[in-house]
Specification:
alpha+beta; elongated; 2 domains; 212 residues; Immunoglobulin-like; five-stranded antiparallel beta sheet; six-stranded antiparallel beta sheet
């Protein structure tokens, strides 16, 4: 699904953007992680000072933990392959982002998005990398919501089979925020499109479409 924008007369933009991990990047990560873990496992089989210390040291991964993590990496590879195939078949993870591109803070912003000729898969979630067994920084898959407004509150979030909705208490000029605090999946067809209705205190109510 290509990013698409539709402009609100009161200087809002409604964007549909794809989300989630890149399958090829994840396969490369799995390959390099597996190679790294294999080297650590090999060290346990050699009479090195490191392996003797690792067996008794707290905070160091043990041999069974490394093997278990390697197994999880192999399972994650299968998950990524299925995820990649699902996207090829039209099941796309996406987010709706609302941006205030005007000069004024606006209030009581209500947004509803309708999916036409496409279905939302509410139980579908993004693939998550297995937690590493060492102290390395964990990778976060789920995109973070960008809330720049100090008093921003998201409420009245609703997800149906063919609609999404939420209310923002306010949105500063130059700020943007995800419609929802999660990524959702839509099954696309050649005829799928989206429309939306947006109302705010300063701008009234407008309707528009979003190309997908």
């Amino acid at each position: 699904m290509k990013p698409a924008t539709t402009k609100h007369p009161n200087s809002f933009e409604v964007l549909a953007v794809t989300a989630g991990p890149d399958p090829d990047a994840e396969r490369l990560y799995i390959l390099t992680e597996t190679e790294r873990i294999n080297k650590l496992i090999d060290n346990f089989r050699k009479p090195t000072m490191w392996s003797r210390l690792a067996k008794g040291a707290t905070g160091k991964p043990k041999l069974e933990e490394l093997k278990h993590y390697r197994h999880k990496l192999a399972s994650y590879r299968n998950t990524i392959d299925r995820y990649d195939q699902a996207m090829a078949d039209g099941l796309i993870p996406f987010r709706i982002v609302i941006a205030n591109t005007g000069q004024q803070r606006d209030f009581d912003i209500k947004i509803r998005v309708h999916i036409q000729d496409g279905d939302l898969h509410l139980a579908k979630t993004l693939p998550q990398r297995p937690l590493r067994v060492d102290s390395a920084v964990q990778h976060v898959m789920e995109p973070s919501t960008i809330d720049l407004s100090t008093h921003f509150v998201r409420s009245d979030m609703r997800i149906g089979r063919r609609s999404l909705a939420a209310r923002f208490s306010e949105l500063d000029s130059g700020a943007d925020a995800d419609l929802l605090n999660q990524t959702v999946f839509v099954q696309l067809s050649d005829d799928t499109w989206m429309d939306y209705e947006l109302s705010s205190q300063l701008g009234g109510t407008v309707r528009g479409t979003i190309d997908v």
